[in-house]
């Protein structure tokens, strides 16, 4: 399925006013299980740093929801958000200017070539690496752009059914993916080959998360892909399924999973 056209429709629907954009971010925070995992990791990383002057790279910023979250975490935090898509960079820059979040700067750039030597304390990459073929080059750029002791935080599909692929004869649910998912040892080895001294990785989207993803994301995306008229049905649909997804998301975020369709990876310079 082509995911970008659906994202474009969502962006158009929620980009009409700053209120609607904030509502959109709040809905993403509630619905997207990956956001639950990323917010948990960011809160842990931020301990003792809330008042410090921190520089962050949002590498593949998309709709800008993580830059929005980060920009409210510390008064002295500065975020550079980069993405390859002109439309999303322009929309985000316009929204952040309107709401007065001047500690975030948006810029069009390609992570395959982007480097800002020793500029950042944290690099955040959420559901980006599965779209980039030249992943080791990107990891090298992340390493070069981090200050000593800096960390990269990555969320990406795993090879245990990531991208909703469960066999060699299946293709990715999201057609824009260039790989179906990372092996947990593979991505750690690639990060070490890029220069990172220490890595940690664990599975997300375990048994509870797989159910939540189907209810909260896969089925609605399939409906919207079939017809935009399903926008009218979605509020009633989520009213029914979301209480179950809320519980499933909490269980997934706070549990340990022997396997899962997602990976949360951290690496330190």
Q: Could you estimate the helical fraction of the residues in percent?
A: 40-55%
User: How many DSSP-defined strands?
Assistant: 7
Rg of Cα set: 18 Å
Largest sheet: 7 strands, mixed
CATH superfamily caption: Vaccinia Virus protein VP39
- The domain count comes to 1
- Give the strand order of the largest sheet, numbering strands 1, 2, ... along the chain: 3-2-1-4-5-7-6
Enter the CATH topology name: Rossmann fold
Low-confidence stretches: 165-174
Could you spell the SSE succession in H and E letters?
HHHEHEHEEHEHEHHE
Quickly give the structural class: alpha/beta
**Percent of residues in β-strands:** 15-25%
Overall, the morphology is globular
Overall pLDDT metric: 89
Task: Return the CATH architecture.
Answer: 3-Layer(aba) Sandwich
**Individual helix count:** 9
CATH class: Alpha Beta
Amino-to-carboxy terminus distance: 37 Å
Q: Helix and strand layout, with pairings?
A:
Layout: H1 4-14, H2 18-31, H3 33-46, E1 54-59, H4 65-71, E2 77-83, H5 86-99, E3 104-108, E4 120-126, H6 135-145, E5 146-157, H7 184-193, E6 198-204, H8 207-226, H9 234-254, E7 262-268
Parallel strand pairs: 1-2, 1-4, 2-3, 4-5
Antiparallel strand pairs: 5-7, 6-7
Helix pairs in contact: 3-9, 8-9
């Amino acid at each position: 399925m082509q995911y970008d056209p659906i994202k474009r429709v969502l962006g158009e629907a929620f980009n009409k006013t700053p209120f609607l954009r904030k509502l959109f971010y709040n809905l993403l925070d509630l619905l997207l299980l990956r956001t639950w995992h990323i917010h948990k990791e960011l809160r842990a990383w931020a301990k003792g740093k809330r008042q410090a002057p921190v520089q962050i790279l949002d590498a593949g910023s998309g709709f800008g929801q993580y830059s929005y979250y980060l920009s409210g975490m510390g008064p002295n935090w500065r975020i550079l958000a980069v993405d390859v898509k002109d439309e999303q960079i322009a929309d985000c820059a316009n929204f952040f200017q309107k709401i007065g979040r001047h500690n975030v700067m948006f810029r069009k750039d390609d992570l395959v070539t982007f480097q800002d030597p020793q500029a950042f304390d944290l690099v955040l990459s959420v559901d980006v690496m599965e779209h980039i073929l030249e992943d080791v080059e990107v990891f090298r750029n992340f390493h070069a752009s981090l200050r000593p002791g800096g960390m990269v935080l990555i969320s990406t599909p795993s090879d245990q059914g990531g991208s909703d692929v469960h066999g060699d004869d299946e293709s990715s649910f999201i057609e824009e993916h260039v790989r179906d998912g990372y092996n947990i040892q593979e991505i750690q080895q690639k990060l070490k080959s890029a220069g990172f001294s220490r890595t940690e990785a664990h599975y997300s989207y375990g048994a509870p998360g797989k159910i939540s993803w189907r209810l909260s994301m896969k089925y609605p995306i399939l409906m919207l892909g079939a017809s935009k008229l399903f926008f009218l049905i979605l509020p009633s649909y989520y009213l029914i399924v979301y209480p179950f997804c809320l519980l499933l998301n909490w269980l997934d975020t706070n549990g340990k999973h022997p396997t899962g369709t997602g990976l949360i990876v951290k690496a330190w310079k």
